[in-house]
Design the sequence.
């Protein structure tokens, strides 16, 4: 399945496709007329077979022009995947015409081999064939270029068809020359060279028909080349957080590709991260099949590297619940879990307890080693509190710095803010710590500073400290 390359806009591509198809029709009409006249004047079966072949080219070019115009129509309610399949159907009809012309050529060639017909040699058939070779070379190159840019199978089939016309014209040209040589040098067996050339032309047509038939049937049956599928899987599997590619389905309709993917992602990913992963997978497919219409389905999956913490969080995430301060202890191969669960502040105790019971049951099913779960139920604030900033309180700020001085790891205290909500005072600040300090130690230090601050100033109901690495301190 050739990758579609789309360096120009869709509108420009459509116009270029139509121009290429129309020029092909005009060229085929002129060449067919010249070959037919030359064949009738010389009685050459090879030339008549070439005229029939060119007539087939004319019909195929006309069908291609029609299919290109129809395939460019956008998708609608009745054709959700667009109208691109018309290009495949036109190629299928072209195969039928090619087969019919081959049958006629073979029957006539056999008849002439048994009952030879006199050939009238002349310069005009040779000139017609040379002109045909030049025209076929030019239009096949043009069609190949446009087909590659637009991904049009109909134009590509036309280009392939016309490129083989060059070889068939050469075969007929050699047949005419051999016939002329037989008549000039009185070599009897060379009189049959014209019929042999016609059979060679039919063999070329059959070969092209077979190749085109295989590709057309594959596209009509939505077959995906093995190498294309493997290339897609390899590219998608390299996207971070993709555990596996469970399904890849590719169908082609004209120049359009439609890709359906199912990806297994770690179940503890956030929605935003999952969206980032799907964007990465989409980009990987676009690199192989530019312009493809991609549908991605993601399946949350338990990975082999999951820890107990991941499994417990996955159960909460499945119920769209928020937990924090999760801790796990192991005693004699049994796990003891402690966590904090946030529930809406308007929820009643009975409903909250039932929710926790179901949550803990699912956690035990997920991790059989769990012996006990202790869940602290907290209310999740749903209202915005009115808060007033307090003028700088030097006493509170001095107490905060005094508490921080007992920890040499704290390099700096700044951005101190005191606020009041109702009768409650709150103090917040930023503190600078070494870059390489482990988070466990950072948390312990901050917790201890907060506790000491509350002991020194009982009127403070809440202390919030934001840690920053030394390299990020912009003061």
Sequence:
């Amino acid at each position: 399945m050739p990758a579609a390359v789309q360096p120009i806009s869709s509108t420009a591509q459509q116009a270029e496709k139509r121009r290429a198809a129309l020029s092909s029709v005009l060229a085929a009409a002129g060449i067919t007329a010249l070959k037919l006249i030359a064949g009738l004047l010389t009685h050459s079966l090879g030339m008549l077979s070439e005229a029939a072949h060119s007539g087939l080219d004319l019909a195929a070019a006309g069908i291609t022009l029609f299919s290109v115009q129809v395939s460019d129509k956008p998708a609608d309610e009745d054709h959700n995947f667009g109208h691109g399949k018309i290009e495949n159907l036109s190629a299928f009809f072209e195969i039928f015409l090619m087969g019919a012309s081959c049958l006629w050529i073979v029957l006539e060639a056999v008849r002439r081999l048994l009952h030879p017909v006199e050939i009238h040699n002349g310069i005009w058939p040779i000139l017609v064939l040379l002109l045909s070779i030049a025209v076929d070379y030019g239009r096949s190159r043009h069609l190949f270029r446009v087909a590659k840019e637009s991904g049009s199978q109909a134009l590509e089939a036309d280009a392939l068809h016309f490129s083989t016309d060059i070889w068939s014209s050469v075969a007929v040209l050699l047949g005419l020359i051999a016939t002329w040589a037989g008549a000039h040098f009185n070599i009897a067996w060379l009189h049959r060279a014209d019929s042999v050339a016609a059979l060679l032309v039919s063999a070329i047509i059959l070969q092209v028909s077979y190749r085109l038939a295989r590709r057309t049937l594959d596209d009509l049956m939505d077959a995906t080349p093995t190498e294309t599928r493997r290339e897609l899987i390899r590219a998608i599997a390299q996207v971070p957080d993709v555990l596996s590619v469970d399904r890849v389905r590719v169908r082609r309709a004209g120049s359009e590709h439609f890709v359906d993917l199912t990806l297994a992602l770690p179940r503890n990913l956030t929605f935003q991260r999952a969206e980032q992963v799907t964007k990465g997978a989409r980009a990987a497919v676009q690199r192989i099949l530019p312009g493809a219409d991609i549908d991605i389905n993601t399946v949350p999956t338990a990975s082999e590297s999951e820890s107990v913490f991941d499994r417990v969080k996955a159960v909460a995430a499945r119920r769209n619940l928020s937990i924090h301060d999760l801790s796990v202890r192991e005693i004699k191969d049994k796990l003891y879990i402690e966590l904090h669960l946030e529930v809406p502040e308007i929820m009643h105790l009975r409903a909250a307890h039932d929710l926790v019971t179901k949550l803990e049951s699912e956690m035990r099913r997920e991790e059989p080693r769990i012996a006990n779960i202790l869940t602290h139920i907290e209310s999740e604030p749903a209202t915005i509190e009115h808060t007033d900033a307090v003028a700088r309180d030097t006493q509170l700020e001095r107490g905060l710095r005094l508490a921080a001085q007992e920890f040499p790891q704290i390099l700096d205290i700044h951005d101190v803010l005191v606020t009041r909500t109702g009768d409650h005072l709150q103090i917040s600040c930023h503190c600078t710590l070494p870059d390489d300090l482990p988070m466990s130690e950072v948390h312990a230090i901050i917790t201890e500073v907060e506790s000491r601050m509350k002991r020194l100033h009982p009127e403070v109901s809440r202390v919030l400290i934001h840690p920053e690495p030394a390299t990020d301190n912009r003061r």
In short: The two ends are 59 Å apart (CA to CA).
